[in-house]
Design a protein that fits this description.
Layout: E1 2-3, H1 12-27, H2 31-41, H3 45-62, E2 77-78, H4 79-92, H5 96-107, H6 113-128
Antiparallel strand pairs: 1-2
């Protein structure tokens, strides 16, 4: 399913992240996008780019389902791309419970620690360089809380 989100609604950081995720999924990397990371994140750019590659490798290796991604120039976001953006938004907002929830939804099970760590590192590098990544306000699923008779 596609979310029809015009590019001007996304922040610069979100556009850079989505475009890079799409290209990495297709062909593993791109020197031009690595240069965009270096320009956007300064000295941390190359490491942020490499850490995003680790995130994508972990997502591919640990995922129990196929993700739907668009071509790099498509202005619409797929549901999975929106979920990936949400992962990084939660990481940048230091909302680790929501981050784990979103990662579990993406991989179809318990996420490996390296996946969350990579998302946090990239989100922090973006944040320190003024690149905003906004988390969704909608939870993946409402948490179930069992009430005991004593409560």
């Amino acid at each position: 399913m596609l979310h029809h989100t015009p590019r001007d609604v996304l922040t610069h950081g979100e556009r850079l992240l989505v475009r890079t995720v799409r290209v990495m999924a297709l062909r593993g990397g791109c020197d031009g996008l690595k240069g965009c990371f270096e320009e956007a994140c300064g000295a941390a750019g190359e490491e942020a780019y490499r850490t995003l590659q680790v995130f994508m490798q972990q997502l591919g290796a640990c995922g129990r389902r196929h993700l739907t991604l668009s071509v790099a120039t498509d202005p619409a976001l797929t549901t999975d791309e929106a979920a990936i953006l949400d992962v990084f938004g939660c990481a940048q907002a230091d909302d680790y419970a929501s981050l784990d929830e979103r990662l579990a939804s993406l991989v179809g099970g318990p996420p490996p620690t390296a996946l969350g760590a990579a998302a946090c590192w990239v989100a922090q590098a973006f944040g320190l360089n003024g690149l905003a990544l906004r988390p969704s306000l909608t939870p993946v699923a409402a948490p179930v809380r069992w009430l005991h008779a004593a409560e």
